[in-house]
Amino acid sequence: MCGIIGVVAHTPVNQLLYDGLLVLQHRGQDAAGIVTAEGNEFHMHKSNGLVRDVFRTRDMRNLLGNSGIAHVRYPTAGNASSSAEAQPFYVNSPFGIVLAHNGNLTNAEQLKQDLYRLDLRHVNTGSDSEALLNVLAHELAEQVEGQQLPPERIFDAVAGVHRRVRGAYAVVAMIAGHGLLAFRDPFGIRPLIIGERQTDQGMEYMLASESVALDTLDFRVVRDVAPGEAVFVDLAGRLYSRQCAESPRYSPCIFEYVYLARPDSVMDGISVYETRLRMGQYLADKIRRDWPDATIDVVIPIPDTSRPSAMELANALGLPFREGFIKNRYIGRTFIMPGQAQRKKSVRQKLNAIGQEFRGKNVLLVDDSIVRGTTSREIVQMARDAGAHKVYFASAAPPVRFPNVYGIDMPTRQELLATGRTDEEIAREIGADALIYQDLSALIEAVRHSRPVLSHFDTSCFNGEYVTGDVTAEYLDQIEAAREHGGRPSSGNATLQLDLNLSRKL
Question: If I label 424, which of 25, 323, 377, 418 is the partner at 20 to 30 A Cα–Cα?
Fold first, then answer.
């Protein structure tokens, strides 16, 4: 998961790109980068860290030009934390191209081999995004006519990218002297949306991962980029588009609606907030059906993503909704903590229980999902320490049993709490008196309710069905081996792994 933005305007875009990255900061906190285009010259600044820490006034002053792209990074399979892998990436031919990518390529290693052997191109980092940039550069070079690269030829190049690349990719790229190119993989796994605004100088365009970036920067939402579609905006502000995939199929990642996206975003015509409310409604229906005798005194969300689902669940069941945990937003990210003792201390520092909401009560805790379970176990214990009589736990998403290979750095199968365990066993693992998961069919219905025509989603982390059709058991084994080689815990003792690994949520 990463956040991307591309802008073509009639005035300097450095502030627009910076402000857009701040809005998309939730999509990646490890690195940030901006590239602006001034004529045929690119200006770049990128580094590890939060947006507010990466850019200083002197950096912003150097980012000249009326068009550009920007990126916030969340590390995925094959990505390290090196600042060399901060995006955007750059190649100098043809014309000069910079690219930012959200997603993950499932055939990245084969692409790198083909680039070296067949295209005579060198990939200098372990990033699949750099490989994607070089594939695009090669395909564009094949389409150049002298110094000319008309939009139709650019779209032919994107069609070539679709034929070679597998996996998830939403892309923004700048071609020096030509304009802004954006495209989405043939399944539309990762989001990308178009916005426009009319100015005295003419129309300006922005493409971004989420509609919230357009809203806050006064761009009007035009539409989502369709799966397999490419959009090109030239430097005069003219927009062109074409379907470049042979057999596109809408299959957006359903986990975007569960956890990744901001609740005030609308993605592929579906409100994230309304989806999360319906997730609470469906979860309430299941509790009524499966827990008819449960005595619940209060419903408490685990901040922040689960709040809409917990609120609607409480409303549907006629139960009090209370904020039982306060989140400290100024604690360092827990995944950098070197040991489990420090990690537990950090979780306690990041969340603090309000004692009177727990004391002597049967509480229902609601979270958006359960991945490794480490945080869930710690939070259940915090509720008990605060005096809860019984602690029930509800997940607004189904059990996560499989890794996500399309841009979310989920653990291996052995590290996932739900793999190989029943609901009762998972409840014991996290210390809850009972556990209830959302049904996958209910989650799908909650998402597609406001847009029934969108009937298929990537639900691979729940059911192991990967929409691109090229993810095999051998591929998953290779990912797990790479995680082990990269210093992450290896397979073996699942309980030990859960203790050593940090949850996605904190």
Answer: 323
